[in-house]
Design goal:
Low-confidence stretches: none
Shape: globular
Radius of gyration: 15 Å
Distance between the termini: 34 Å
Structural class: mainly alpha
Number of helices: 3
Strand content: 5-15%
């Protein structure tokens, strides 16, 4: 906390597996949880993904971290 740079420091070996930069935030509530719950209910057995976009901002993808880890592992096989 309070340090500059990435929130999750990866070793060089881990960076090869996960070529991503992570910023972590934790709050009591985010406004994405209600629409993500709707995506989960409507997913009918598929991995739920929420795409959000604010005015004049890039679209973002929201998905469960464990689903993302499974996807990352599959992509690195």
């Amino acid at each position: 906390m309070g340090q500059h740079g990435e929130d999750i420091q990866l070793s060089p070996a881990a960076r090869k597996f996960l070529p991503f930069s992570f910023e972590c935030k934790k709050y009591a509530a985010f406004s994405v949880y209600t629409p993500y719950k709707q995506a989960s209910v409507n997913s009918t057995g598929h991995t739920p993904i929420l795409v959000i976009e604010a005015n004049r901002q890039k679209p973002l993808v929201v998905m469960a971290f464990d689903d993302w880890l499974c996807m990352a592992k599959e992509l690195n096989k």
